[in-house]
Amino acid sequence: MKKLKNALQLSIILSLVVTTLVNLNPVYASPGTAVSVEGGGIGGIDGFPIIEPGGSFDVNIVVTEIPSAWPLLGYDFKLSYYTDVLDVYSFTIGNIFGTTPGIDYRVWHNEVNETGGYVWLAVSQMEGESGVTGGGTLATITFQVAIWGGTPLDLYDDKLSSFDPVKNDAVPIEHDAIDGEFSDVGMLPIALFSWLPSPPEVGKSVTFDGTGSYDPDGLVVGWDWDFGDGTYGSGSTIEHVFTDVGIYTVTLKVTDNALPSPAMNKLSQTVWVIPPQLSKADLVEWKARPEHKTFDKSLEMKKDGNITNSLYAYVQSLGGWLVVVKVRFTVTDALTGTQRIIETNEIGLAEYLETYTFDTALDVIPLWTEFDTTSITTKSKFTVKAECLYKDPTEWPEVWRTGAHTKTFSFTVKP
After folding, report:
1. pLDDT of 376
2. Per-residue pLDDT tens over the stretch 265-311
3. Per-residue CA distances from 74 to 34, 124, 130, 259 (Å)
4. Residues 6+ apart with CB under 8 A from 265
5. Which domains are delineated in the chain?
6. Which of 15, 255, 292, 331 has the fewest CB atoms in 10 Å of its CB?
7. How many CA within 13 A on the CB side of residue 205?
8. 137 vs 281, which has greater pLDDT?
9. How far apart are CA 284 and CA 295, in angstroms?
10. Pair 327, 286: CB distance under 8 Å
């Protein structure tokens, strides 16, 4: 292979390939550049055999279409699998850089983690090599089937590295990741779930809903939940109460009705559990000044740029003066049914009340936004739904919530 002239460049590549690529902006690669799982499959479909427990099969992790402008100098990936379905019989480094470790390539990480259910490999070329273009095999894993069942074979934390001589620095190569799967009991079920309220508050009930899960070739018959706080449950929908503020990984495992043994699949999502809500706000009626239109009264807007071209709503704090608010207007054309969403700027209530003085004891503030009528050429009628959005900046994460009440009104635009 052609030697790179600058040894400093190579030392930078080798020092960065494993530790910092995730923080760098990706370089352009051809649309076909990908890291993919080849091998495995669904028994009896597309020529893949049904492999009984005790049997084995190979999976290759391959890379394709590495552009000549950005030759591959290093790679790093993890591949996850279900440890109750498969065991790793062997894990071999591919020959994309050559066949001799310490001469052709350097291994930074080589691990089979049976507890976490993944294999992890990080490799770079030795100093002085010029990189590889085109494609090749990164690794080969031989799996042994432990039980009847199925598992996704998912790539994650995958990185490809090259070198930019202008920046004199390592750069990541943009690419796609294409996962695989194994099953000897038909197609795997698909786990899906959501929760309300979102985000949940500590000490209050949250409903987890897994009824959207499905099986492409059968029925989902089991839903098992791990809430990430040491508690578990079952059922397509389930109520749960988190007792501490924090970030939790909630996992739903679904099983289907396949024979001779059900197939299963999992989905994990991050759930933020926040402190009790202190700051609230909502829409109110406000008639403190005659020049301010009553909120739910029909308005006539004109294309002359005057104040009636603004949508108004009035907001009041319901506790907590750090609350930040804005109003969202959903404007619907009564004739065509088309909608547009218009939002006011966000502002802190305390900041607003310190800046402006209104003759009201209710600490109510008006929020408004322009309604663009430049494209309206004929007399048109609109309906509006207004809702208050608010958040407490002392919470983490900051979350926009919706007030309990909405207001509706209509107006006409006359050109």
Report:
1. 79
2. 999 999 988 877 666 788 876 443 333 333 333 445 454 444 456 77
3. 14, 4, 11, 43
4. 150, 152, 188, 189, 190, 191, 253, 254
5. 7-183 (2.60.40.680), 194-273 (2.60.40.10), 281-414 (2.60.40)
6. 15
7. 4
8. 137
9. 9
10. no
User: Cβ neighbours of residue 379 under 8 Å, at least 6 residues apart?
Assistant: 412, 413, 414, 415
Most confidently predicted of 167-171, 385-389, 394-398 = 385-389
DSSP-based three-state secondary structure for 36: strand
Cβ-based neighbour number of residue 361 at 10 Å: 7
> Which strand (E) or helix (H) includes residue 15?
helix 7-16
| pLDDT for res 365 | 77
Q: Which of 29-33, 91-95, 245-249 has the lowest mean pLDDT?
A: 29-33
pLDDT of residue 309: 62
Average pLDDT over the chain reads 81
- Structure tokens that stand for 32 in this block: 């076909």
- Residue-by-residue DSSP string for 213-281: -B-TTS-EEEEEEE-SSS-EEESSEEEEE--S-EEEEEEEEEEE--SSS--EEEEEEEEEEBPPP---E
Cβ atoms of residues 143 and 56 within 8 Å? yes
Number of residues in the chain: 415
What's the rounded mean pLDDT across residues 327-339? 91
